[in-house]
Amino acid sequence: MRGAETDVEDVSDRTTVVLVPRPALINDIDVTVEEPQELDDALITPRGCLIDPSVRPVPIISGFVQLIRVFRLLSRVVTLRLRLKRSHGQFPECSDEIQAIQEGLNAGMETVPPGLDPMSDYPPALTSYDKSLETCRANILVTQSLVRIELHRVALMAGFDDVSFDMFTIDILRRLDR
Known about the structure:
Layout: H1 7-19, E1 44-45, E2 48-49, H2 60-86, H3 94-110, H4 128-157, H5 167-176
Antiparallel strand pairs: 1-2
């Protein structure tokens, strides 16, 4: 059983697997804990957890939870790539899995809490809280971009030449070129 303290290792491992061709060290099946509750430490008291959106409308931990979800999709893409490679391109369910991952990513991005949506424009960060949210948004943007690009590469590996970037991916690439 593995705990939340290893989430940073999971993230680093998944990123490395995409950027450098090597097998993953950590498998999602080995992670058996639930996602952390989306609540800032300041609202945890000896009497329990306080929910007070007036303090901080978006807990910073929400950005971390969103990032975990995106990295889980990245893990699925990496697993799909390895299965496709091992099957020498003979993997008929590949198209369905590509579509499921793409739909999961789009659905996940539509449910990102306000304040963490990487596709929205925000005023300059002035407080440490704002800067923390800005960092979360940047991490979500880059990681989901990595998922989209890697998914596109897998589709091309599978011989789906007619696969094109969706509007989300085109917008992400445009934002990264700024």
